[in-house]
Amino acid sequence: MRQQDRLPLILERLAQHGSVSVVDLSAELRASAASIRRDLQVLEEQQLLKRTHGGAMAAEVIYELPMRYRGGRRQEEKRRIAQAAVRLVDGSVHSVGFNGGTTITELARLLSTGRALKVVTNALNIAADLSVRPAIDLVVTGGGVRPESYELVGPIADRTLSDISLDLVFLGVDGIDAEAGISTHDEIEARTDHCLMRATRRVVVLADGSKIGHRAFSRIAPIGEIDMLVTDAGADRAELDRIQAAGVEVTVA
């Protein structure tokens, strides 16, 4: 296993248990103790953990993996979700909004159209991908950079979104629950996401199965403000039924 594949797994174990040992990681990841120690050093240099004798502990409570370590997780599921979602951008859709996240990034990469399409996003990585496509009229919100997700958030982004109107918004979230609604890890990001929702007539949430029934720290909106959820077959069926009963159209990719 390559180091770039081991690092997110180490951070996941750290988030789950609060500490990790070189011996356990070496056995689980089938890597030498020396390789694991180098991995821990890399993560300590990024201030994501604190090394201890024989292992490491969380430098602080880890609520969210940085996006650079999330790209390879559940990749096939995210690709299927994106493929189902891109079909919603039909001839009746002339303007689209994206927030950030790995599944929304997959969708943006699939966006290919021979006609003019207005796209509004607060995600720097998505803006970079779309800026070279001549058929896309791209608008970037501005705002303060949130490095964990590459998103622009805060009052500047919120003011930009308050003055626009979109046909369709695709929203990535960290949790969706029939009672709690949709949520994310950061309260400032949650407000900007809600401003993006208010700019459109239709909101489509993209969330892989691990996020169904999950509640993150900050609520973006109640379930009643969502029109459609696109997820994968790994989602909890009972929770999907509750979400559907709340009036949300559910598509399983």
TrEMBL record:
InterPro entries: Carb_Metab_HTH_regulators (IPR050313), DeoR-like_C (IPR014036), DeoR_HTH (IPR001034), NagB/RpiA_transferase-like (IPR037171), WH-like_DNA-bd_sf (IPR036388), WH_DNA-bd_sf (IPR036390). One of its GO terms (molecular function) is DNA binding. Pfam families: DeoRC, HTH_DeoR. Keywords: DNA-binding, Transcription, Transcription regulation. Residues 3-58 form the HTH deoR-type domain. PROSITE patterns: HTH_DEOR_2. This is DeoR/GlpR family DNA-binding transcription regulator.
